């Protein structure tokens, strides 16, 4: 499978479940950041914190492994990675 074959993915964080451990920001600081409220949020492509509930940001292919690992290691199980095309979760608590 070539990178071109991979579906476009997006990631969002459920702040209601976020424990503020910051593991995600350690794995992928380009995508995740802890805000002053102690919770993690995703960042836009131009590094802006997205604080709306359910805000998504694209997952850069170069960071896919880091984002996947952060979803797996997150103690709050609050990181959701899904396909943009059909919104099916591929990594995270609701993944098949």
- Strand arrangement within the widest β-sheet reads 5-1-6-7
Distance between the termini: 20 Å
Q: Portion of residues in helices?
A: 10-25%
What profile does the largest beta sheet have?
4 strands, antiparallel
Low-pLDDT ranges: none
What report would you give on this structure?
It is a single chain. The chain has 96 residues and is of the alpha+beta class. The chain has helices at 23-27, 64-73, and strands at residues 9-13, 32-34, 40-43, 49-50, 56-58, 79-83, 89-91. The strands form 2 sheets. Strands 5-1-6-7 form a 4-stranded antiparallel β-sheet, covered by helices on one side. It has a 3-stranded antiparallel β-sheet with strand order 2-3-4. A hairpin with a 5-residue loop joins β2 (32-34) and β3 (40-43). The longest helix is centred in the C-terminal third of the chain and has 10 residues, at 64-73.
Topology:
Elements: E1 9-13, H1 23-27, E2 32-34, E3 40-43, E4 49-50, E5 56-58, H2 64-73, E6 79-83, E7 89-91
Antiparallel strand pairs: 1-5, 1-6, 2-3, 3-4, 6-7
Kindly list the characteristics that best describe this protein.
16% helix, 26% strand, three-stranded antiparallel β-sheet, 2 helices, 96 residues, 7 strands, four-stranded antiparallel β-sheet, single chain, alpha+beta, globular
